[in-house]
Amino acid sequence: MYYWRKPYFDTLKEIAEKAGIQPAWAEYAAFCLEYESGLRKNAFATLERFIAKFERSPFSKRREFVSWLLTQAEGKEGRHMLLPHPLKIRLVEPTLLEWTTVEPACSEPHRWLGGPEHLKQALQLDPEDELARRKLIIWTMGQVSAYCHPIPKDYTGDFKDDLAALAEADELVPGLPDGHHRDFFASQIRFDRARILEHLRKVRGH
User: Fold this and answer.
1) What three-state secondary structure class fits 105?
2) Which residue positions in the chain have pLDDT lower than 50?
3) Which residue, among 8, 96, 16, 5, has the nearest Cα to 50 in the 3D structure?
4) What pLDDT is recorded for position 202?
5) Which distant-in-sequence residues (6+ apart) come within 8 Å of 124 by Cβ?
6) What is the C-alpha to C-alpha distance for residues 54 and 61, in angstroms, rounded to an integer?
7) Where are the domains of the chain?
């Protein structure tokens, strides 16, 4: 009955199998399996027990789990189901913030915290952090008013800001090691810049 969300539930089952290998993560694995089976109330009761126990664990244990989970969840269908709100605010985010203090030279917690400041910090610490670079490019391009949308006649975006954002994204692209990603983002930036400049020429021609 949840066929349209089948990839989400397949993800829960996959992660449950991987988490179940670690005895300390058994309750998180159980949460995933119960959630996948449609037992939402039971699943969140199990998750509560896991959080209550694990949030008191030593930092190294929490870091190991958070790093593993976020790596596994990246790009997955149903990622939000793997990281429900109670888990994020009580275990994942506090651990990431503590991580930035305990290991200030490590880019990984900044990569997962996201947002422009943390992503820029991640790249300053590790210019070869490809995922942080891609996330920052996507975030920067997302600030462009016309991004992924036809520019309407009543476009009210700021041309200067939009072109500056595209220029900033453009500077990040060459650092991507994957040629496919470089070509994709470079093409999208050229396309969006051309649309904005064309619209600007039309506006100034009136």
Assistant:
1) coil
2) 1, 4, 148
3) 16
4) 74
5) none
6) 8
7) 3-104, 127-205
